[in-house]
Amino acid sequence: MNKTTITTEEQKKIEDISTRYRQITYELGDLRVSRIIIQQQMNELSTQLESISESEVKLVDEYRKLQEEDGTLLAALEKTYGAGTLNIEDGTFISTEETKSEVSSKK
């Protein structure tokens, strides 16, 4: 069996290739870890988005019900007091309809 020593230049090339392999392997691992972390964040964001969507649906439903309730109350107030303007801060109502006595007095 012959033992031959390779040249310094060949040894250097082998070391360079080995170093590049290690570097690429390290970078691939780093990328994989980054991918795992990002995937976890995406899953968390997806869960949060679902929760927001569910809350939004509930709030839109509540908003629609409130609009219906508002319309019903306004109709009841108009039936009781007639057309007019309501000051919600002090509870006063100003009628915009002329009463029968006002109409009769104008004649």
Summarize the structure.
By secondary structure, the chain is mostly helical. The protein has one domain.
Task: Spell out the key features of this protein.
107 residues; mainly alpha; two-stranded antiparallel ribbon; 2 helices
Task: Characterise this structure.
Strand 1 and strand 2 (92-95) form a beta hairpin. This protein is mostly helical and 107 residues long. It has one domain. Strands 1-2 form a two-stranded antiparallel sheet. It is rod-shaped and about 120 Å long. The model has no long low-confidence stretch (mean pLDDT 91). It has helices spanning 8-81, 100-106, and strands at residues 84-87, 92-95.
Q: How many DSSP-defined strands? A: 2
Distance between the termini: 135 Å
Query: What percentage of the residues does DSSP assign to strands (E)?
Result: 5-15%
In what order do the strands lie side by side in the largest sheet?
Answer: 1-2
In DSSP terms, counting alpha (H) and pi (I) runs of 4 or more, how many helices?
A: 2
> Which structural category fits the helices and strands?
mainly alpha
Overall outline: rod-shaped
H/E topology pattern? HEEH
Largest sheet: 2 strands, antiparallel
Helix content: over 70%
Let me know the average pLDDT.
91
- Unreliable parts: none
The number of distinct structural domains comes to: 1
Radius of gyration: 40 Å
